[in-house]
C-alpha cells in the first residue's frame, strides 16, 4: 500500500462518488476504480458498498478513512520538514568553540542567526582545538571555532579574526612591574602551558621570538584547560603567553602585559569537513563571515600553517 493509494481512497471516501473523486484527482474513472479494487484486494477487506445510485463506506472503510487521514497528514508534515531542512530552515548544528572565541561578537552572531533561523537548534560545546579537530573528522561536530594548525586534508576553513598575544603573570611577579617588556626578559622563566595534546603549536611564535633574542623559557606546568592555566599563573606558578580576550575573565591576582611590538598574532578560524552538504551550515557560515567582516585579514603571509 502506497501513499497514492491512500490519497485515491480518501478522495472517494470524502466525495462518496467515483466520478467526482476522479475529477478531483484529475484521473479517468476506470483507472481510479481499478486502484480502489486493488487496494481492497491487498487489504483483504471491502471498503465501499457500491450501487448504481450511491457509494457508502463499509465499517472497514470507516476505519481506513480515520487512519488514512492520520498517515497522509504525517506524510505532509514530513514533506514540509524535508523541504525546510533542504532550505536550511530547520535542523541541528553542532558547533565547537574554544573558550577565547566565546565572546560578545560571537554571542551577537548567534542571536542574529537564531532570529533568522529559529528552527535550527544550535548545540554548542566548549572544546579545545585538538578535540574539535577529532570531533570534526568523526562527524561529531558540524563546525568548529578554533586555532590553527589543521593538519587534516579533509577539513576546510575560513579566517575569522586574530588577537594579539599578551603575557599573563601574577600581580607579584617582577615582570608585572617592569615598565616595558623585552624578549630577553623571558630567559629561564617558568611557563604554565596548555598541554600539546590540547593546544598544539600555539606557543611556537612566542618561543621563536624568545629564541631569536637568546632567551630560553622552559615548560614548568602543563594544564588541559584555560581556566586552570590562568589560575596557576595567578597563584605564582609561572608566566605564559595568552590572547588578549582572556582580559574579560577578570581573575584576581592576574596581570596582562603587552609583549614587545613584534608580538605574535593568534588567529581564530572556522573549520568544517569538506564536502558536507548542509544548507543550515552554509547559512551559519555566512552569518559568521558577515559578523567578522570588519576584521582585517591576517597580518602575516602566509596567514598561518594548516598542516
Write the element-wise H/E pattern from the N-terminal end onward. Answer: HHHEEHEHEHEEHEHEHEEEH
Tell me the span between the first and last alpha carbons: 54 Å
Please tell me the CATH architecture of the largest domain by its name.
3-Layer(aba) Sandwich
- Helical content stands at 25-40%
Largest pleated sheet: 7 strands, mixed
CATH names the topology of the largest domain as D-Maltodextrin-Binding Protein, domain 2
- CATH superfamily of the largest domain, by name, is Periplasmic binding protein-like II
Q: Determine the strand fraction and express it as a percent band.
A: 15-25%
Classify the secondary structure makeup into a structural class: alpha/beta
Can I get a quick summary?
Helix 1 (3-15) crosses helix 2, helix 1 packs across helix 4 (59-86) and helix 5 crosses helix 10. Strand 7 (190-194), helix 8 (204-212) and strand 8 form a beta-alpha-beta unit.
Polypeptide structure, described:
This protein is an alpha/beta fold. It has 3 domains: 3-86, Winged helix-like DNA-binding domain superfamily/Winged helix DNA-binding domain (Arc Repressor Mutant, subunit A); 92-160 and 270-291, Periplasmic binding protein-like II (D-Maltodextrin-Binding Protein, domain 2, 3-Layer(aba) Sandwich); 162-265, Periplasmic binding protein-like II (D-Maltodextrin-Binding Protein, domain 2), CATH 3.40.190.10. It is built from 10 helices and 11 strands. Helix 5 links the parallel strand 3 and strand 4 (119-126). The radius of gyration is 32 Å and the shape is rod-shaped. The two termini are 54 Å apart.
Amino acid at each position: 500500500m502506497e501513499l497514492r493509494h491512500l490519497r485515491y481512497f480518501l478522495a472517494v471516501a470524502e466525495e462518496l462518488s467515483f466520478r467526482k473523486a476522479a475529477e478531483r484527482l484529475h484521473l479517468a474513472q476506470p483507472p481510479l476504480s481499478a486502484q480502489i479494487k486493488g487496494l481492497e484486494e491487498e487489504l483483504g477487506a471491502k471498503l465501499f458498498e457500491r450501487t448504481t445510485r450511491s457509494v457508502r463506506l463499509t465499517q472497514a472503510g470507516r476505519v481506513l478513512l480515520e487512519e488514512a487521514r492520520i498517515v497522509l497528514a504525517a506524510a505532509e508534515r514530513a514533506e514540509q520538514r524535508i523541504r525546510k531542512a533542504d532550505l536550511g530552515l530547520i535542523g541541528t548544528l553542532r558547533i565547537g568553540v574554544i573558550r577565547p572565541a566565546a565572546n560578545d561578537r560571537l554571542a551577537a552572531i548567534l542571536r542574529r542567526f537564531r532570529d533568522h533561523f529559529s528552527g535550527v537548534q544550535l548545540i554548542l560545546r566548549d572544546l579545545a582545538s585538538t578535540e574539535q579537530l577529532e570531533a570534526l573528522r568523526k562527524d561529531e561536530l558540524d563546525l568548529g571555532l578554533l586555532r590553527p594548525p589543521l593538519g587534516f586534508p579533509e577539513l576546510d576553513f575560513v579566517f575569522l579574526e586574530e588577537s594579539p598575544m599578551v603575557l599573563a603573570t601574577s600581580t607579584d611577579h617582577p615582570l608585572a612591574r617592569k615598565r616595558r617588556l623585552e624578549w630577553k626578559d623571558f630567559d629561564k622563566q617558568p611557563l604554565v602551558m596548555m598541554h600539546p595534546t590540547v593546544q598544539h603549536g600555539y606557543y611556537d611564535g612566542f618561543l621563536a621570538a624568545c629564541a631569536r633574542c637568546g632567551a630560553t623559557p622552559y615548560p614548568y606546568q602543563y594544564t588541559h584547560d584555560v581556566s586552570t592555566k590562568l589560575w596557576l599563573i595567578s597563584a605564582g606558578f609561572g608566566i605564559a603567553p595568552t590572547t588578549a580576550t582572556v582580559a574579560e575573565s577578570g581573575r584576581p591576582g592576574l596581570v596582562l602585559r603587552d609583549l614587545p611590538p613584534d608580538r605574535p598574532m593568534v588567529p581564530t578560524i572556522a573549520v568544517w569537513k569538506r564536502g558536507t552538504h548542509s544548507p543550515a551550515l552554509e547559512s551559519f557560515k555566512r552569518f559568521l563571515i558577515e559578523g567578522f567582516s570588519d576584521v582585517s585579514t591576517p597580518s602575516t603571509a602566509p596567514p598561518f600553517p594548516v598542516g
